[in-house]
Amino acid sequence: MSRYISGIEPTYPDFHLCNPYYGHNLDTIDCGLAELRLPQGATPREYRVRGDSAAINPWVFPSQVVFGTCTVTVELADAEDSSDTVWISPDFIRGMANWVLEQCVRKPGRLGGFVTGNLANYRDLLLAQYLVNPTSWHHAPVSPAYAFITVTVSGPWEKIRSPGEYDPAVPHQLARAVQQAAMTEPERSSVRSKYQNLAKSLTLAALDTPRSSNHRWTRNPPGLDTMTYECDSKLGVPRPIDCIQIAYSQLGFPSDTISIRPGIDKLLSLSK
């Protein structure tokens, strides 16, 4: 018998997103039964990474379970296909899936969506890479130890690209987290300036990645030399976080909601 696992609320900067791109009017019973087919266990298990289509083997990422009209996909975003492994509790993955069920599928509209895990480690890697080489900060997959996990609940009628690599909400959330890290550095320091530049670059990567496109935001992201600083005319002399906020408000579907941190939802306004 499958044990019930309540939804695990993401810890900032991790977040969840409900969006019709991942399905709408989903069958709540099918999705609940799909979640019950995920592996169980509180003890961490070893997972390998295989960089092709969703695997039948539940201990290999990406993995996928389907029941009726609902699909649950577990992926390690932007991870290189290597002999390295990661250790994760199966019940933690189930808790992530149930969080999407509770926040998206069982709410009005019965939308699909995804939730992230371990985004803080991925942010820290980007910060370290950018300090070493800001001109080519992210052109290759990362070690599975620094990659982040996504659990997606969707309909089965179309192939859904990995939200960790293709959904613009991810670099936007990372931009916010990087900007917050910048604010902890001494004012006018080179580290603070570099972190702020990385936040701007992540924002641009999000704006250049429509959700329905084949463009990965994690590959060849735009450099700062391509920025137009459109927010300057709107804000006078803006702070970097103000530019990020304006860009964030221009992204998404009319019915798109994203949980930035517990208790805060941002309604996105522009369909792409």
Blueprint (SSEs and pairs):
Blueprint: E1 16-18, H1 28-36, E2 45-49, E3 60-61, E4 63-67, E5 70-77, E6 85-88, H2 90-105, E7 113-117, H3 119-132, E8 148-154, H4 163-166, H5 169-182, H6 190-207, H7 231-235, H8 240-248, E9 257-261, E10 264-267
Parallel strand pairs: 2-3
Antiparallel strand pairs: 1-7, 1-9, 2-6, 4-5, 5-8, 7-8, 9-10
Supply the key terms.
272 residues; alpha+beta; seven-stranded antiparallel β-sheet; three-stranded mixed β-sheet; globular; disordered C terminus
Termini separation comes to 43 Å
Annotation field: number of helices: 8
Alpha-beta content class:
alpha+beta
Query: Can you count the beta strands?
Result: 10
- Largest sheet entry: 7 strands, antiparallel
What is the oligomeric state here? Answer: single chain
Q: What order do the helices and strands follow?
A: EHEEEEEHEHEHHHHHEE
- Give helix % range: 25-40%
- Coarse morphology: globular
Pick out the low-confidence regions: 224-238, 246-257, 259-272
The Cα radius of gyration reads: 18 Å
- Strand content of the residues, in percent? 15-25%
User: Going across the major beta sheet, what is the strand order?
Assistant: 4-5-8-7-1-9-10
- Average pLDDT rating: 79
